[in-house]
C-alpha cells in the first residue's frame, strides 16, 4: 500500500522480564496494520545480570559511560535482541529485506529527568550489523535535550490506535500497567495528554521475589489471599509524586518495595496491587476531563486483584474499564508495536513527543538511525 512501511519493534521494559517483538505496517500516521508478536522471556541468570546493571548504572554521569558490568551486559543484550529478530523472521516466514527498520528500545538502566539523563543499554550499530536491517534507537534523548521528560513515548501510538475507536468511547485513556504505569488521555477533539502514573508491577514483583522467591504474582493469586494494609497503602499513595503540581517521568528506583516486617507475603501483594490501581486514579486529577473508558494493556492487566480494584475505583468515578483485547488490540504487544511505529515516524521526520506527553516545548522528532553498513542518518 502506498506510503506504508514495515517495521519491527523491540521492547525490553522496566519489568526486565524479556524481549517483546512485534511487526507493524504503517504510514507513520493513522494507518496501522498490526502483525505478529513474539515474547521471549529472559532466563533467571540474565535477569540477575540486568538487576546488577541497574546498580552499576548509578555511577553514570554522562549517558555514553558504561561502568562496571554495563559494557558486557549491553553487548549480550544486543546479541539477544538480534537472535530474537532472527527467530521472529524465521517463525513468520519473513526475510530481512522485507523490513524497512527496527525500532530498538533497549533496557533503561537509569532515568533522571531532572538531570536530562536517560540511559538505555543497547548497541544500535551492532544490532543493524547483526540483523542486516536499519535500526532506529535512542528515541528518548532528543526530547530530554529539549526540556522534555524523555517518557512516555508510547502515546503517539495510542493516538493512532484511538483513531479507530468510536466517538462514544471517548475521551479514552490507555493505561499501560508494566513495571511502571503510564497513561495516555485522548480527547474527543484529538487532545493528547500523557504521563507516568505511578508504580505498576515492579513493587509487586520485587515483593514476592524477596519474600517467596517467585518472580511475579501470577493472576494475582497471592494477593487474592491477603488484605490491604491501610498505612502501607497510604504511605505509597501519599508520596510527593502524587501531590506535586507538575508531572514527571519515573525511574524504576523512585518507589521501593516494603520492608520485610511491614506486611505478610499475601497482605503485601494485596496492598501493592491496590496501590497500582489507586495510583492510576490519583494521577487522573491531572486530566482535563473524566475518561469514558480506560483501556488497560501491559502485564498488570493479568493480575485479577489489581484489575478488580481498578474497575471499582474507576466505576465510582463514572468510568468503564476494558482490556486492550476487549477492543481488538493486543495488551502484550502494544509497547513493542509502538516502537515499530515510532521508528517509522522517526524515519519520516515526524514528531515523537508533544507538549502534552513529555512536556517538551513543541512537537519534536527524535531517534537515530544506523544502517547495516555502519552509516548513521
Ligand atoms: N499472568 C500474569 N499475572 C499477573 N501479572 C503478570 C502476569 N504476566 C505478567 N505479569 C506482570 O507483568 C509484568 C510485565 O509487564 P510488561 O511486560 O507490560 O512490563 P514492561 O514492558 O517490562 O514494563 P514497562 O511498561 O514499565 O516498560 C511482569 O513483571 C509481571 O509483574
Ligand atoms: C525511561 C523509561 O524507560 N520509561 C518507561 C517506563 O516504563 C513505563 C513508563 O516508565 C514509561 O514512561 C516508559 O516506557 C514506555 C514504553 C514509554 O516510553 O511510553
Provide structural commentary.
- It is a single chain.
- With 377 residues, the protein is α/β, with parallel strands linked by helices.
- The chain folds into two domains: 152 residues, ATPase, nucleotide binding domain (Nucleotidyltransferase, domain 5, 2-Layer Sandwich); 173 residues, ATPase, nucleotide binding domain (Nucleotidyltransferase, domain 5).
- Helices cover 34% and strands 21% of the residues.
- It contains eleven helices and twelve strands.
- The model has no long low-confidence stretch (mean pLDDT 97).
- The chain binds adenosine-5'-triphosphate and ligand AH0.
- Ligand AH0 binds next to strand 4 and strand 8.
Which features does this protein show?
377 residues; alpha/beta; Nucleotidyltransferase, domain 5; 11 helices; 12 strands; 21% strand; binds adenosine-5'-triphosphate; binds the ligand CC(=O)N[C@H]1[C@@H]2OC[C@@H](O2)[C@@H](O)[C@@H]1O[C@H](C)C(=O)O; ATPase_NBD; nucleotide-binding; ATP-binding; EC 2.7.1.170
Amino acid at each position: 500500500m502506498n506510503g506504508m512501511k514495515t517495521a519491527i519493534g523491540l521492547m525490553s521494559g522496566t519489568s526486565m522480564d524479556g524481549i517483546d517483538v512485534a511487526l507493524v505496517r504503517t504510514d507513520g500516521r493513522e494507518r496501522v496494520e498490526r502483525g505478529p508478536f513474539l515474547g521471549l522471556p529472559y532466563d533467571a541468570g540474565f535477569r540477575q545480570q540486568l538487576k546488577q546493571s541497574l546498580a552499576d548504572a548509578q555511577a553514570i554521569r554522562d549517558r555514553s559511560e558504561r561502568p562496571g558490568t554495563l559494557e558486557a551486559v549491553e553487548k549480550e543484550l544486543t546479541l539477544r535482541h538480534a537472535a530474537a529478530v532472527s527467530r521472529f523472521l524465521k517463525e513468520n516466514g519473513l526475510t530481512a529485506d522485507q523490513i524497512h527498520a527496527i525500532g530498538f528500545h533497549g533496557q533503561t538502566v537509569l532515568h533522571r529527568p531532572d538531570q536530562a539523563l536517560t540511559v538505555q543499554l543497547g548497541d544500535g550499530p551492532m544490532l543493524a550489523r547483526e540483523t542486516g536491517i536499519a535500526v532506529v534507537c535512542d528515541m528518548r534523548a532528543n526530547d530530554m535535550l529539549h526540556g522534555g521528560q524523555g517518557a512516555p513515548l508510547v502515546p503517539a501510538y495510542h493516538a493512532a490506535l484511538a483513531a479507530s475507536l468510536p466517538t462514544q468511547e471517548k475521551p479514552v485513556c490507555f493505561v499501560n500497567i508494566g513495571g511502571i504505569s503510564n497513561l495516555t488521555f485522548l480527547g474527543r477533539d484529538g487532545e493528547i495528554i500523557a504521563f507516568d502514573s505511578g508504580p505498576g508491577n515492579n513493587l509487586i514483583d520485587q515483593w514476592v521475589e524477596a519474600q517467596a522467591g517467585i518472580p511475579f504474582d501470577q493472576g494475582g493469586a497471592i494477593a487474592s489471599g491477603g488484605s490491604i494494609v491501610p498505612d502501607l497503602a497510604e504511605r505509597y499513595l501519599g508520596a510527593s509524586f502524587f501531590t506535586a503540581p507538575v508531572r514527571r517521568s519515573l525511574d524504576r528506583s523512585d518507589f521501593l518495595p516494603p520492608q520485610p516486617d511491614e506486611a505478610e507475603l499475601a497482605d503485601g501483594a494485596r496492598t501493592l496491587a491496590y496501590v497500582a490501581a489507586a495510583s492510576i486514579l490519583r494521577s487522573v486529577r491531572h486530566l482535563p476531563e473524566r475518561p469514558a473508558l480506560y483501556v488497560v494493556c501491559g502485564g498488570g492487566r493479568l493480575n485479577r486483584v489489581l484489575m478488580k480494584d481498578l474497575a471499582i475505583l474507576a466505576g465510582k468515578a463514572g468510568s468503564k474499564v476494558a482490556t486492550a483485547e476487549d477492543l481488538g488490540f493486543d495488551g502484550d504487544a502494544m509497547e513493542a508495536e509502538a516502537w515499530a511505529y515510532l521508528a517509522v515516524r522517526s524515519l519520516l521526520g515526524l514528531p515523537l513527543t508533544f507538549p502534552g506527553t513529555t512536556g517538551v516545548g513543541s512537537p519534536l522528532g527524535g531517534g537515530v538511525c544506523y544502517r547495516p553498513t555502519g552509516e548513521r542518518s
